[in-house]
Amino acid sequence: MTTGFSxxxxxxxxxxxxxxxxxxxxxxxxxxxSVLKSAGHERGKxxxxxxxxxxxxxxxxxxxxxxxxxxxxxxxxxxxE
Length: 81
Hints:
Elements: E1 3-8, H1 15-24, E2 30-35, H2 43-57, E3 61-66, E4 69-74
Parallel strand pairs: 1-2
Antiparallel strand pairs: 2-4, 3-4
């Protein structure tokens, strides 16, 4: 299992960020996203970013929040509703 890495900065979740995640998922099964201080170091914001990313990626993805890191995983079938 290979893991990719990405950073979420002050611009937040943009279309370019989502496009780069989709491109990374072509090579990796999971991706760790570090939420930088400029994006806002608050638990609520990290959770909101996670939900927004999942909504834009689709139903084949799940997320887990560890501190200020969001771990995304891609599945072969739809996991979420």
